[in-house]
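Incident log, structure service

09:12 report received: a user says their structure output differs between two submissions of the same chain.
09:20 pulled the input from the user's history:
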Amino acid sequence: MDDLIIQLVEDEYDKPYVSFQAGTGRCEISGESFPEKTEDFYARIMTWMEQYMNEVRGPLEIDFKLTYFNTSSSKRILQLMMKLHEYVQQGGKVKSRWIYHPDDIDLEEDIEDLKLISKLDLEMISDKNMRYIGLDLEQ
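09:34 re-ran on a clean worker, output below:
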């Protein structure tokens, strides 16, 4: 099975970086996600995930490092998280983390909602090194 790598492209700043490694089960989705054709973009990820779960059946370790995602992306991310939870229910091993900036309260709430709805055992990790552009109301 091949790896799935979707590099950041300068003209396509609306799509996240994706690295799914078939040999190790290490996965990462990072950056921002608001592509025009969200369903098409995330279909590649879901297809890879389903193939991995059916053929490799190995452990998965996935890091979400998304600093922004729109509503359409949120729906696809939720589907991915629900698929991961389903894999666990079928005996698969999944370790999932979402790393975010501690000052990004809106993102933290969105992550908590996705975690609750998907029922995925998702570790939320606040990290000041993550990108965050908040509103500075004192300026």
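09:41 both user submissions now match this output. Likely a transient worker issue. Closing.
09:42 reviewer note: Strands lie at 4-6, 17-20, 26-33, 60-69, 94-100, 122-126. The chain has one domain: 14-126.
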